[in-house]
Specification:
The complex is a heterodimer of chains A (about 675) and B (about 500). Helix content of chain A is about 40%, strand content about 10%. Chain A contains 29 helices and 24 strands. Chain A is globular. The radius of gyration of chain B is 33 Å and the shape is elongated. The chains are: A alpha/beta (about 675), B mainly alpha (about 500).
Chain lengths: ~675, ~500
């Protein structure tokens, strides 16, 4: 194989100037082709020499289907990082193929979201791939202790994520603890079968551990002493560990000196007493997360005073008292990050006292602090002028005039969330001065119009993400301004901006980097506009055209042809029929489909489409189809790795905005 | 016989005071016993409580600061004497004693003659004659025993003394049992050297309650094994007396013997029940009552026991001698440590025990030891297994066999798994094979070599079938680094296998 390549390269020497460049230099050039995955593809398709060069160069691979693994692994011999999270199903067969093909070149493998494998597949992997350093087997729900024991054969493993491996018990984790002594990062989140003994053994045997995630494990105080003795431990997550309480923490006099980040969110049985005893020995702590924890009182804030290195504290969802916030203001440290998202009890007085002292704040989250007014905003903007991220969704008492301060004083802002606020065009005009802005969320801002948005479009050229969900005042003019001024735009949400037409979409088609496009409930959008997006935005991965009644099969055809990166589509309530759906089968990447209330969809058409789309992992369907289609079909599809979600909702002309919001949060992982 | 009732339990506290000068009389008596069996039983009976190994009688007891006490390897007559003296029993008469003794002598002579007669006839007897002689013998022996019994403190008292001694020690661990002045029996302190020593100790009136409590504890202590519990006991040397039983006594199946028919029992309660058959006098509530000390306890030194096995840590001559607390401890210790383990668990057929109670305890849990280590050790509790693994390098939890099979065959169907592995060829198969021996645990070296020599088998999927799912993964081992060459491990030193310390099973199979 390599011999023939050499020959071909010699042939090219005489004619191809590119051959004057050494392989290393070409590799350096290829290293720069990172932005668009298709770039390397087109490079490799240029000629045979490029093809072989690219094959040799590629280190990372993220295949979509396991069927092609043998071929692509022979094509790319030096692949060291294999991300199989997009494969709907990875069987033991595939793992043995990988292990024999990659051998010791494999450094990391991601098997999360594809848990059809078992212990024998993992065993061949860990026995053959001696240099395997990282493995992610999260969500391998069927994996048992034997599988964990197989993993224990990977002696050089340094990073292991095994979240939600619910059948693995202390025994399996014990095997890993004994076998993988070099572990530095380990996540056992939601491994409900693992308790004190397994975790304790990890702490005893794996002395190199840097990062340990024990979220939601049924562990108690018993394993804490050995964990805190880990001398390199920097990051400890104890989220939702209900078994840990104050009593034992009080007994822990020696803290973990190396600890830098601690997450004790949702630990119901920990009060300020336990917390202060736990943190008293951990002087180096930089990040502390106490979301949904005990009330942030004076006592708690005073207890944390000793943390002289603290940079970030997250108190999301906790009850906050004014005295607590004031005490935080008296800390000697200067915080860089503060999150009070969804905290009850945040008042102008308390918040002001914090921000006036912590003037170096870079990130501030006061989402849903509904009591604060312009006083707080004025105080925040005047003291924390270097803010780079400011989230203040649903601070409904803040008047529209206050938003002007943000633009006037905080020029370093890169991320700004003003969802559900009173901001108006004046405020937007002011905010447009934040030229570094890359993420701007203006959902449910009913006071803004094209005028204000035009300012943003003109000045914020680095904008990557724009959310205009239900900002009804926006029309084509505003969107065009954005499309014109923000060429780097990757994500836009114009859902329920009812006046938007194809003109906006045609202008947005210039944003070639656009990967997420949501235009729910825009009745004027037709297939024509969608075609423009499909042609212009080749990187489109997520498309939501729910309730765009004027989009029909005609819009699907260009999509099927051009949007080869499309992974997720929502076609509910559109006019797409069997034909359009079936044409989408040519999209090899397509994994998730939501097809509710498609009037033109017949059972046979659906069956054909489902069978044709080989890579589907998630399909949302109306429950009525369940009985209309043969059960073996579903079994076959489920065996391919597809999960069906049945919905039995009646036809809804218009959804309650809050309800829709919750759904989106589910889908995009709490983007709001 | 009447003496039995009159002698109070306090007697025994006073008994181990002084070495008796007329112990030789007992020796004579002893030698005159024609029926060794009977004599043994009697001695054992008291030996259990009084600890009287005859051969060691005169050995100096260097360990004890109370040479008189500790060396008081008590003889029954002596105890009799002293005990009676001490208690000033009104109807005690040396003359009666002498009468009894002479009666015994007489009877023994009769017995001797009878036996001589039998010997003279060459052992050939007509059945009728045999029966006659047997009847004669029986009557003589019964008389002998009953008279001998009258020489001794009563059975009831004997038992009562034994019981509190155990009870006290159990209850007042590490506390000196102090002497009490106002003894009912009217102790004569000047009689005893041991008494003088103990007089220096604090005098505490323990009262009657104490005694009854002690009695309550007796049964419990018989059941409990105190050998471990006493580890922490730190009695100053000399604060207790050391008693040592002989091997034969320790191993005797019974400790309580009927003074009439000689039948042996393990518990005094059973003996008392048995005694009812010997006459109405044993049916009185007093006779049937649990023997206990009379209220107002007496001065008494704590008793500790020495194991007769020379060199044992529990032997009094050992440098770091740790005494045993009770006779039960002695028995269990001796059996566990110095005897063959003859009781084999019928379930697992591997575990052996020398104490039946241990076997029974084990059998309760046998089969439930599901927590398995790669070294082959099983644990009934998971935390014990993890403690073991945390302690030893290279040991790893062993996943049970059935789960290994399931886990490896996995959710993907078996056929697919086999196909997969047969496809990937020799390297995988080799690795599986190399792991096989440890997985089976009991598989011996020869088997392993046999299978590894058969190189062809590595390439067949059949081999994979037979070996892989045998639970080889029960004991995961570091694999050979050079997995490309399936034969590399056959060349010495070619493989990078690093044996882990403590991984015995794997070492033995891979050498």
């Amino acid at each position: 194989m390599s011999h023939s390549i050499m020959k071909k390269q010699k042939v090219f020497e005489t004619i191809n100037n590119f051959d004057l460049l050494s392989e290393e230099i070409v590799f350096l050039i290829l290293d720069c082709l990172n932005t668009n995955p298709l770039d390397k593809k087109s490079f490799s398709l240029a000629c045979k020499s490029f093809y072989s060069l690219e094959s040799k160069h590629r280190k990372k691979l993220k295949p979509l289907r396991q069927e092609h693994l043998p071929k692509i692994l022979t094509r790319y011999p030096s692949v060291a990082h294999l991300d199989l999270s997009l494969c709907p199903r990875i069987t033991d067969n595939s793992l043995t193929t990988i292990s024999s093909a990659c051998n010791s070149t494999l450094r990391s493998i991601d098997l999360s979201k594809s848990g059809a494998f078992s212990g024998s597949g993992l065993l061949s992997l860990s026995l053959n791939c001696k240099n395997l350093l990282e493995i992610d087997i999260s969500n391998a729900i069927g994996l048992k202790d034997a599988g964990a024991a197989a993993l224990a054969e990977a002696k050089n493993l340094e990073k292991l994520w095994m979240g939600r491996c619910k059948l693995v018990t202390d025994m399996g984790v014990g095997c890993i603890a004994v076998g993988c002594k070099k572990l530095k990062v380990m996540s056992l989140k939601w491994c409900l079968g693992v308790g004190d003994l397994g975790v304790g053994l990890i702490a005893v045997k794996c002395k190199e551990i840097r990062s340990l995630d024990l979220s939601y494990l049924p562990i108690t105080n018993k394993c804490l002493p050995s964990i805190l003795k880990l001398q390199y431990l920097e990051d400890l997550v104890l989220e939702g560990c209900f078994g840990i309480d104050d009593d034992s923490l009080a007994a822990l006099k020696h803290g973990c000196k190396s600890l830098k980040a601690l997450d004790m969110s949702s630990c119901q049985n920990i009060s300020h007493l336990g917390l202060s005893s736990l943190t008293s020995g951990t002087g180096g702590l930089q990040q502390l997360t106490l979301a949904y924890g005990s009330p942030v009182t004076l006592a708690l804030a005073d207890g944390l005073k000793k943390l002289s290195m603290l940079q970030s504290i997250k108190l999301d969802g906790s009850v906050v008292t004014c005295a607590g916030l004031k005490a935080m203001g008296n800390w000697c440290v200067s915080l860089k990050e503060l999150s009070l998202s969804k905290c009850l009890g945040v008042t102008d007085e308390g918040l002001s006292s914090v921000v006036t002292k912590h003037r170096n704040l870079k990130k501030l989250d006061i989402t849903c602090c509904r009591k604060i007014t312009d006083v707080s905003i004025a105080q925040i903007t005047s003291s924390c002028t270097t803010l780079s991220s400011f989230k203040m969704e649903s601070c409904t008492l803040v008047p529209r005039e206050a938003f002007v301060f943000i633009g006037q004083r905080c020029h370093s802002l890169e991320e700004l969330d003003l969802t559900d606020n009173e901001i108006d065009d004046e405020g937007l005009k002011s905010i447009s001065r934040c030229s570094k802005l890359s993420i701007l969320k203006l959902g449910i801002c009913l006071n803004i119009t094209d005028l204000g948005l035009a300012h943003v479009g003109m000045s914020c050229s680095k904008l990557i993400e724009l959310d205009l969900y239900r900002s009804m005042g926006i029309t084509d003019t505003g969107i065009s301004a954005i499309a014109h001024g923000c060429p780097d735009l990757e994500m836009i949400n114009i859902a329920y901006c009812k006046d938007i037409t194809d003109t906006s979409l045609i202008s947005l088609s210039k944003c070639s980097k656009l990967n997420t496009f949501e235009s729910r409930g825009c009745p004027f959008i037709t297939s024509l506009g969608l075609a423009a997006i499909a042609v212009g935005c080749k990187q489109l991965t997520k498309l939501d055209i729910k309730k765009c009644h004027n989009i029909n099969d005609v819009g699907m055809l260009p999509l099927a042809h051009f949007s080869q990166n499309l992974r997720q589509i929502n076609l509910s309530y559109s006019s797409v029929t069997d034909v359009g759906l079936l044409s989408l089968a040519s999209l090899g990447c397509l994994q998730s489909m939501t097809i509710l209330h498609l009037k033109g969809l017949t059972p046979s058409g659906l069956a054909a489409a489902l069978l044709a789309c080989g890579g589907l992992t998630k399909v949302k369907l109306q429950a009525s189809f369940k009985s209309l289609l043969p059960q073996p079909l579903f079994k076959h599809l489920e065996a391919r790795g597809c999960v069906f979600q049945w919905r039995d909702k009646g036809f809804q002309a218009e959804l309650d905005p809050k309800c829709w919001k919750l759904q989106v949060e589910d889908m995009v992982g709490g983007g709001y | 016989m009447d003496l039995k009732g009159s002698l109070c339990a306090d007697t025994w506290g006073e008994l181990p005071k002084r070495m008796s000068s007329n112990n030789s009389s007992f020796a004579d008596f002893d030698s005159q016993q024609p029926q060794q069996k009977w004599e043994d039983q009697i001695i054992l009976d008291y030996g259990m409580r009084m600890n009287s190994p005859f051969p060691e009688f005169n050995q100096p007891q260097t360990q004890s600061p109370l040479p008189c006490n500790s060396s008081n390897q008590i003889k029954f007559p002596v105890q009799m004497n002293e005990g009676l003296q001490a208690n000033k029993t009104e109807d005690w008469d040396p003359k009666a004693m002498l009468n009894n003794l002479s009666f015994l002598e007489q009877k023994i002579h009769q017995l001797q003659e009878l036996v001589h007669l039998i010997v003279g006839r060459g052992g050939q007897l007509v059945t009728q004659q045999q029966q006659l002689i047997t009847a004669d013998l029986t009557s003589i022996i019964v008389q002998l025993i009953s008279t001998a019994g009258s020489l001794l403190p009563s059975v009831k008292n004997n038992l009562s003394t034994a019981a509190p001694s155990i009870g006290q020690l159990g209850q007042f661990t590490g506390v000196l049992f102090p002497p009490v002045d106002d003894l009912k029996g009217g102790v004569q302190p000047q009689n005893s050297s041991g008494r003088k020593v103990s007089n220096n100790l604090n005098h505490v009136d323990l009262g009657g309650n104490c005694v009854t409590e002690q009695n309550h504890t007796v049964e419990e202590h018989e059941l409990k094994d105190e050998e471990d519990a006493e580890e922490g006991e730190n009695l100053p040397p000399g604060s207790y007396e050391i008693l040592q039983l002989e091997k034969e006594e320790i191993l005797a199946p019974h400790t309580h013997f009927c003074t009439i028919c000689g039948k042996g029992f393990k518990r005094d309660a059973n003996l008392r029940m048995h005694m009812r058959g010997h006459g109405d006098e044993y049916k009185t509530p007093a006779a049937l009552a649990k023997p206990h000390k009379e209220s107002g306890s007496e001065p008494m030194l704590i008793k500790r026991y020495s194991c007769p096995y020379a060199g044992c840590k529990r032997n009094k001559d050992h440098k770091k001698f740790q005494p045993l607390k009770t006779i039960l401890c002695v028995k269990n210790h001796y059996k566990r440590t110095h005897c063959d383990k003859s009781y084999i668990c019928s379930r697992c057929n591997t575990k052996k025990f020398s104490v039946i109670a241990d076997l029974k305890t084990h059998e309760k849990h046998c089969g439930k030891d599901k927590w398995l280590c790669s070294c082959g050790t099983t644990f009934s509790r998971k935390d014990k297994l993890f403690g073991h693994i945390a302690l030893f390098q290279g040991h790893t939890p062993a996943i049970p066999l059935d789960e290994t099979n399931k886990g490896l065959a996995g959710p993907s169907d078996r056929r697919e798994g086999n196909e997969a592995t047969s496809k990937i060829g020799s390297s995988i198969n080799f690795n599986f094979s190399s792991n096989v021996p440890t997985g089976n645990g009991t598989q011996n070296d020869m088997d392993t070599k046999g299978s590894t020599d058969d190189s062809a088998s590595f390439f067949s999927s059949l081999n994979f079938d037979t070996c892989n799912f045998d639970g080889f993964h029960e004991f995961p081992r570091p694999p050979f680094d050079d997995s490309e060459n399936p034969f590399s491990f056959l060349i010495p030193g070619s493989c990078n296998y690093i044996p882990k310390t403590g991984g015995d099973s794997s070492l033995s199979t891979l050498k």
